[in-house]
What does this fold into?
Amino acid sequence: MALTLPSKSTTTNNSNIIIYMALIFVTVAQFASTLYLPSLPVIANALSTSQSAVQSSVAVYLMALGTSQLFYGPLSDYFGRKPLLLVGMGTVLLGTVMIACTNEIEYFLIARAIQGFGAGAASLLARSTIRDSFHEKKLTSALAYLVMVASITPAISPLIGGHLQAWFGWRAIFIILGGYISIVIAGIIYFFPETNQHRFTAKINFATTLQNYRKLLQNKTYLRYVLYIILGYSAQILYITISPFIFQEQLGLTPAQYGSLIILPAAGLFLGSFTSLWLNKLTRLSIDTIILIGISSIFVSGATLAVVHMFHTPTVFSVLIPLVLNTFGFGLIAANALTGFLKPFPMIAGTAAALSGFLQMLGSGSINIVGSYSHMTDPQSLGWCLITLAIAMIIITLLLRTSNKY
It folds into this structure.
């Protein structure tokens, strides 16, 4: 079924191509981030390194991804989205090939940084091309589709990665990922249109770029919605990096079993995104109200993990059900927060998305590093982390509340 969301600035055919390709870009960044997660314990053994070192590869990827967006965003505002997409996809392909060939943890982490630096283009410019092409309610709907695909991909990614690990070993994961990225590059070259209709004809002015960043950081509306994304995404990264060790080492699951099981939390993210889409289309609820419901869901998830496992031994379902509630909450938050910080800045959408991506990955990556080296591998610790993040989002709501009605 075609996801046709026509706008004033694009034809129907271009609208279809843009949204389908944007959804594919999201899968590249997601696959690069999550396809290898079931193999984390195996990779630690293969590279003769510690659990925390391998877990930190997630943070290295995220922080490189976030930093790269500071470059991709302003450059894509000047030169257009398509050239920067090609540069980014080429870079993520290079990092992926390097990972498949490495035998040492140091080179593995360097290659993850290169991979993340390239994937930043896919993550950022998927949002920017949507912002270029759709408006008002159609923008929120298109972003909701983006979040829904971002939830489906982590559902199938560990499942695929777990079975590739079981059948061929962990290197096969990155070889197949490299093939997929190569196909995407060909699709960009031959099918993807340029979406940036506000490309600057003047020279790139880094003083203007810094001024735009300062303008964004001084805007309470922008800051509030970006902080929602940072903290909500951090909740997801913590569960993603801790859960392989909970399910495989504490509860005795194999990588393939873990990959199959983790579909359920990803389905929670999909359901949250779909619910957000439905609420935006069929109710008068503001995006702030929907975000607050999402924050409450993450809080309840953390409280359940923390309190239940004070008194009971963890089981698969006692851990899994709260994780679904956590991802459902982020599904409600994500598309609405994206709309909240992108809508006021159509002329610098790339810059606005770039700064948000940088802050998101820097913040969530830093939280992940703290979690990795705190040796948090039990459900109760994860629960207290989710509670803390939810409370922080409530405090942000109170401190940075504005009069926005959208």
Residues 7 and 261 are 39 Å apart (CA to CA).
